[in-house]
Amino acid sequence: MDFVGFGNIIAFIPFGILIPLLYRITFVRFITLFFLSIIVMETIQALSFLGSFDVNDAIQNSLGAAVGFGAYKLGVRSKNGLRNIVTTAISCMVLLSGVWGLCGIVDKALTKEEGPFVAINKLIDSSGNSSTEKKRIALK
Question: In DSSP terms, which residues pair with 124 in a beta bridge?
Fold first, then answer.
């Protein structure tokens, strides 16, 4: 993942912390509603020509919100307010690094490497002769 993907994840972590702080909500309901709202925003973005519809953005935004939700749930376990904040921040960093690592592994596994194939237009030069014809002419 690149810097833009990292930004898409980081930017939505606060939503994962603030929404469960304000409303009592389960993770499944939260992530479903969040993903649907992001899809609606991506659609509005595409229809208004202010951007493009990109499912990768919606997935990365939802991952960020999920990291924030997990960090919030891990951080609110104690009664001490300062301890909650520190635990949430540390949980957020650990979960973010885990998600970042998993996304890197999945990206590497799904990215196709270029093979030894050469495009046809690379084989034919401007005079219309193919590179194999040049080799035959050179051998004569």
Answer: 130
